[in-house]
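User: What would this chain look like folded?
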Amino acid sequence: MSRGETPSFGVRYYHYRVLSTMILIDPTREYEKGPRGWKLWCHMATDDLSAQGFQELHKMAERLGLPRRAFQEHPRHPHYDLSPDRRALAVELGAEQVSSKELVRRCSLLENPQELS
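Assistant: Here's the prediction, encoded as C-alpha cells.
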C-alpha cells in the first residue's frame, strides 16, 4: 500500500481485531422508552476496564459516528447505546456479540457483577 492510501475495509478490520481491546455488544432489544426517542437499541462496552480499554471503546464509538458525550459512565457498566444500524456496523468492525448478562458480567465495575442478576 502506498503512502496516504486508505487501507481496504478488510485491512482495517484485521488491524482492529489484532491490536485492540475486546469490544462487546449485546442483542438489540425493544424498550418502552429509550435514548433519543429510540425503541430498539443495544449496549456496547469493553471488557478491558483500564484507561487503554476505554480509549479503545471511544475509538470504536468514533468510528461508528457517535460523539463522546454519548458515553454513559454508568456506575455498574460504562457503555454506549447503539441503534440497530450502528450495531450492525460495530459487528462488521469486529465487536463480539454476547448476551446482555455476559456483557454486564465481563464489563462490570462491581466486584461481584452477579449482584445484577
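The radius of gyration is 15 Å. If you want, I can go into more detail on any region.
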